[in-house]
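Are you able to produce any protein sequence you like plus the matching backbone structure tokens because I've never seen that pairing?
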Amino acid sequence: MPGETLISSSNTVAVFTALMAVVAIGLAMERHAKLGQFGTMFVILFPALLTATSILPRSSPVYGFVNGQLVALSIPMLLFNADLRVIWKQSGRVMIAFLLATLATVIAGVCAAFLVDLGSEEPVWVGMMTAAFIGGAVNIAAVAGAFEMTGDPRIGLMFASIYVVLIPYFLFLMYLPSLGPLWRLFSGRTQILPDGGQDAPAAVRAVSEARALEPFGFAAMVALAGSCVLIGEGLAHVSGMPALKFLGLSLVAILIATLSPATVRRLRGHTETGHVLIYAFLAVMGSAIDFSVVTAEGVPIIVFVTILLALHLVLVSVFGRVLKLNGPELLVAANSCILGPPTAAAMATARGWPSLVTPGILVGVFGWAIASFIGVGLAMVL
């Protein structure tokens, strides 16, 4: 039967098991010096191969669960490290970098719109994609709703076309620090530890091995993270602003970390669990790639997105050099702006920049909060 896969979309246990197996292999690869740089690539691209060969389904309730509940849970888990008294300086610099990245996205979107014809209702499409590259999918829905286009079938084509560019772009961002000449061209300041502090791999090990996992601390961590999500959902429901869900859950987690560090010290496994959940998100992102639907209709979108992302990165580099920001700060901010908090946290974790995980999440959530307004405003101006 057409569309039939070896693992049925309704077999949620099998789908989730396959995703976790991919995540486990990717994490195992990261433990080896020679394979470590390919771990994240494997987590994204192998599910795409499994869906292309009809082993995994392209849609499943599991994917919605991972992208919804599990990603939401991963944010407070990682933010339990967010003692603002400790990270204030670095988060402030990443926020500056993120604001520059936001400005770069708007400028790049306007330039791309002049170079590529997106057909009828072009301003709305530009607004939606610009909002997506400052915030995320929730902002696309908000902009589409503002212009009564939520039912437009072309939005699905837009998502598929965007993925064609986003996956290689994310992989390029992930491995840019390993490309010496390009990395130095991107930023003249490539270190985040100018004070001679501990090296990045050692910092990652310190975070992971500081405390042994024990049942009470782990259960309390999950319950507390879930409570943060529930509070965020309540705020979003009362206010009617979906983005407030993530702002709310993030704010609660930050307040706990900053005002009650003793509580956080009793928790166990939040960094490691958050890492796993983020990689599950990356695996789902890979499984959503459907190159077969990217037809001639999607070519203008692919060209538009390619121009936008290339110009965005150039502008971020220029702005960063003017303000003398570090390469890792700029790269995490650019990632958080274009791809969102989960991928920014994944990159910061994988690259061995633990001090940038929390700022990357914070500025990404801020992007979700402002992107809809920017997207609607840009569509009206154009």
Observations:
- The two ends are 46 Å apart (CA to CA).
- Residues 200 and 353 are 6 Å apart (CA to CA).
- The longest helix spans residues 84-115.
- DSSP finds 17 helices and no strands in the chain.
